[in-house]
Amino acid sequence: MKNLKVIFMGTPEFAVPILKTLIENTNVIMVVSQPDKEVGRKRVLTSSPIKTLAAENDIEVFTPHKIREDYEAILEKKPDIIITCAYGQIIPKILLDAPKYGCINVHASLLPKLRGGAPIHRAIMEGHKTTGITIMYMDEKMDSGDIISQKSIEIEDNDTLESLSIKLKTIGAKLLIETLPSIIEGTNDRTKQDEIEVTYGYIIKKEDELIDFDRNTKEIYDHIRGLNPNPGAYFILNDKKIKVYDSKKGNTKGPISTINNIYKDGIGIGTKDGEIILTEIKPEGKNRLNVKDFLNGLDKKKLKGMVVNDRKD
Fold it and tell me: Which of 22, 122, 124, 200 has the smallest number of CB atoms closer than 10 Å to its CB?
C-alpha cells in the first residue's frame, strides 16, 4: 500500500494514531486539519495535534476555514483515497466523489448508534455497555454512509473519556489498516445503516456539563466520567464553579443536591436514589486536586448541609 496516495483529514489527539499508521503504511500526500486556535488564558495560537504530526513528517498541511468553499488544493492533489477521522467539518460532495477508492471515515461508535461529534462522551454518559469503531464510506449526511467494518469493545465501569479514547484510537488505527486492502481490491463488505436504529452523539454543550443531582447515582457517576478530562462536569458551590473529575457511588441517602456527608477522601452529595461521593475536583481558579487535599483547612461543619447548584444570581 506504499504507493496509495492518501489525503488524511483530522484534528484532535484521537486521530493521531490513525495518521501515524497511514504514514507508516501508505503515501500520505497531504493532511487537512482545522485552523490553529487560541488556547488557554493567554490565548496562545496553537496547532492541532494532527497538523503538528504532519509537520514533523514533512507532509503538506492545508487548513481551510470552510472546506465547502475552499477545496481546490485537495482536488489538485488527485488522491487515490481520502480518509477522515474527527476532522470537524462536513465534506462537500465534490470531494466525496473525487478519489477512485472513495472517502473513508473512522468513527468512534458502532454505527448507526451515536452518529455525531461526541460519540465517546455520549456512550459513557448514557451508560452504554459497549461501543467500538466503524470504518465507513462517507456520504453527504453526517455519519450515515455504508459500513465497511466494525470492531466492538466493552465499556468498563471505571472507564473515563480519556481511557476509552485511548482504547478506541488504538483499535481504530489497527482496524483501518486491516480494512484498507479490501477497499482497494474491491472485496470489502458494504452494509447500509438501519435508519430505525440511528441515535446521535451530539457535540457537548455548556449546559451538558452541569451535574444534575436530581438523577440516579449511576447516571451522575457516568456523567462525570464521560466528561473526564475535557470539558469536565461541574457543580456550583457558593456561586463558584467546581469541576469534578472522579467520583464513586455512596451507600447513604439524604436530601438531594445537599452535602450530606464529609469523608476522608470525598464529599457526599444527595442524589435521587442515594449519594454520589466526589473524590477529585478543580475549584474555580485553582488546580485539579483530590478532595482529601481540598478539605484540609476547611470548616467541615459549615460545609455539611450546604446546598449545591443554588445560584444567588
Answer: 200
